[in-house]
Design goal:
2 copies of one chain form a homodimer.
Chain A (H helix, E strand, L loop, with lengths): L1 H19 L11 H18 L3 E5 L6 E6 L6 E7 L19 E4 L6 E4 L7 H16 L6 E7 L9 H7 L1 H4 L3 E4 L11 E6 L1 E10 L7 H4 L6 H10 L22 H8 L5 H8 L12 H6 L3 E10 L12 E10 L5 H15 L5 E10 L2 E2 L5 H14 L4 E4 L5 H10 L3 E3 L15 E3 H17 L1
Parallel strand pairs in A: 3-6, 3-7, 7-15, 8-14
Antiparallel strand pairs in A: 1-2, 2-6, 4-5, 5-16, 8-13, 9-11, 9-12, 10-11
């Protein structure tokens, strides 16, 4: 594969860039047409790579791309990826246009990387699979049937995909779901995912008076929805860092001492971590390490808050409404649906009588675990060992790919997560990028996975 | 004056509308030129009304308009007003263009009013003074020298005016500062202001990690600046509604039983108040009535908050920064400067080690009292009694006109606040308006004030 990459590098960049140029932001209705453009471009690329059959499939939301190469092999690999991306905001923090990809040197390390929204998550990572497949097919080394499913709603919680998967169970029949949509521990420490967190996501709206008021005429006598919202949010954590919603921890699996020890064996430098983020200290649930806090413990974060006057200068106003977006990362076996309900009930219970509190749930998803004893995990481990020169560490991912738990349940097959992202890629943030080195190492690892699986 | 209004009504509207059409938003740098346009239009109107001398004066910020009519009388009235307005946002809540004034019926009462940003605050109210002056001059009834000072920075705390006033003490020499920039208790209960609250205004910035993070990879391990900001804000009030900043109440005058009784004699219907605002209950400092809470007690309100993702949909992010704008209304003899310092010190003291907290103060101002025994207060009371058919109730205003305490101190003259706004005018909010009835009653009251002073 190494030689094939060298020979086809420029074409690879052209193809990937053509995907990155399409602003397929699933969260924003104004990008509806871009979703179709991106899906159609993927179909072209799949066909060019050698898929017999590839097409755009309608769903209740953004379309799904499905492609297939049947060589009559006994085993079938189902490659999952998503072509939608996070909104690029805040735009002013990007050094280059988020939808005009460039290859540039990392300001810190000097290594070359592709800078664009989706460079890694997940256009860059799904692209590796198309090219590894193309290489195997053209070099006569393909030993498995390969199916591709690329969805356009991962970043908004895959609301339409479960129904589509249920309707197309036969089409999707396969032996493993292969996914590259996660990170490795570090560029020196390759790792393989053995579990992901789930997600519950809700928007809270607090309404005070029916109009914005003069803060002089009413201040001190009328409850301010921003102050009330802040009090509600502050009350959602205990002092020990635990989430203060009754029942929140009921279904959290408590790991044994041995499992926790193994988890903490993954290399981690707290000082480096703090320096990378420029924080004086970490903060989280008492009694757990940083690795544990993001892997085996659930958490609650406000992802956005707004209300009142947010422009320049000093406008005095007692606003009518305030909003917050709250995400909760869940661990197996917390149910996203149950946690969503607990949150809604709790907010209504603690809502003060002076304001109205409305809670709107968004799509979430459950966490899941990946069996490390499976043939797929073993093949992936061997492939990565060869490419990186060391065995990948098993690690639990803190993020969520809601749909994978659903697909695991509906199709009855386990996912395998070979992720090649790095912390430095700052996915979901300005200046998202993907190291060329990791892009190519990913392609090589995937090609070898097929060889050993 | 009544007949004069009837004969000149259409011209009055044309003149006032020409002011309202200029978007003189002092808080926004992009309106710098509009401030000059508005100041120059005021100079024209002052000259047309009969001022001998009127001009635009530069300050460190937006310009001041000063005009003068010297008839050699023993006494001089200094009329203060401001031509700047609050930002019109949120624009989508306006029924008509905020800077294209219209006369329309109040949807609730059917009474005619002018709808525009500044219709009342303060273009509409300062306009009454120019027209009362014009009438007195043209009808040969003017018995005082009149000076006008209209500033362009009231809504941002008048940062440049104190220095300008200090430099022009001689020019401004007079016997009373006459101001219409406040409200009456209700259209059935005329009132005269006998005090205003002061203001301290600060922006709080909480910085967590040095970049926006993936809330899955970091959530639970890294302090979230929005959650931290909410906790800080929530901690600023005690459960009894008192502000929890040490020293905050040190200089608050505690009124005697009699004074409080008199204050509460002002007509107030709690049920109507709650219905007007569509709230289930009021909220404020324990042990005080709603009237007291907005008149003689200080308070703390968040006027704006923002951070993270605030667009549509469900973006998962652990943001780097969160902001809040905090206003504190102060009572005599709390010092705005001292409270600003207490707030800054308190925030630094309670800032958790996981985040950086920066506090930026904006311009504030002290509260003040108006002596009810003064000849000016008595003349105003008599004038309003005649126009409204009942004696105006003395009332303490909850709002702040920061500059008046400064002018009182620098020039050594007391202000007199004849305000004709009503709660229904929703100043600082969408669909600001000013009843024609109040506009004309204001002109009549002011003309009579000059007669009785």
């Amino acid at each position: 594969m190494k030689n094939y990459i060298q020979e086809n590098k420029d074409r690879f960049f052209q193809e990937l860039f053509s995907l990155l140029r399409i602003p397929s932001v699933s969260a924003k209705p104004e990008h509806k047409q871009d979703m179709y453009r991106c899906a159609e471009r993927l179909v072209e690329l799949l066909k060019e790579a050698g898929a017999d059959q590839a097409g755009v499939y309608e769903t209740a939301g953004h379309p799904v791309v499905f492609g297939h190469k049947d060589i009559g092999a006994p085993q079938t690999v189902l490659v999952y990826g998503h072509y939608d991306v996070q909104p690029p905001e805040p735009l002013e923090k990007w050094r280059t246009d988020p939808f005009e990809p460039v290859i540039a040197k990392d300001p810190a390390t000097g290594e070359e990387a592709i800078y664009a929204r989706g460079a890694n998550d997940d256009k860059g990572q799904l692209f590796m699979h198309m090219k590894a497949f193309e290489f195997l097919l053209r070099s006569g080394k393909l030993r498995h049937n390969v199916k591709f499913i690329f969805e356009g709603e991962e970043e908004i919680g895959s609301p339409s995909l479960p129904a589509w998967v249920k309707e197309h169970k036969k089409l999707l029949k396969s032996d493993v779901i292969l996914v590259s949509d996660t990170t490795m521990i570090s560029d020196k420490v390759p790792s393989l995912n053995c579990g992901m967190r789930g997600l519950a996501y809700l928007e809270v709206k607090v309404t005070g008076p029916n109009k914005d008021l003069h803060s002089g005429h009413y201040g001190g006598a009328v409850a301010n929805p921003i102050n009330e919202l802040c009090a509600l949010i502050a009350s959602l954590h205990h002092k020990n860092g635990r989430v203060a919603i009754p029942g929140f921890y009921d279904d959290v699996v408590r790991l044994g001492k041995k499992d926790r020890e193994m988890l903490n064996r993954a290399p981690f430098d707290l000082q480096e971590y703090k320096e990378f983020l420029d924080i004086a200290d970490v903060k989280g649930e008492k009694g757990y390490t940083t690795i544990e806090r993001t892997a085996i413990r659930p958490c609650l974060d406000v992802c956005g808050i707004w209300g009142g006057y947010t422009g320049t200068g000093a406008k005095t106003v007692l606003p009518s409404v305030a909003y917050a977006k709250v995400s909760m990362r869940l661990v197996p076996w917390q149910s996203s649906e149950k946690i969503t309900k607990l949150f809604q009930e709790h907010l209504q219970r603690i809502a003060p009588p002076y304001v109205k509190v409305e809670v709107t749930p968004f799509e979430g998803g459950d966490g899941f675990l990946i069996p490390m004893s499976s043939p797929a995990y073993k093949a992936a481990s061997r492939a990565m060992s060869e490419v990186y020169g060391k065995e990948p560490v098993p690690a639990r991912g803190g993020g969520s790919i809601a749909i994978l738990a659903d697909m695991q349940r509906i199709l009855g097959i386990d996912p395998l997560l070979m992720g090649f992202g790095l912390e430095r890629d700052t996915i979901h943030s300005p200046n998202e990028s993907y190291l060329l080195r990791q892009l190519f190492a990913g392609m090589e690892s995937i090609a070898l996975f097929y060889q050993y699986y």
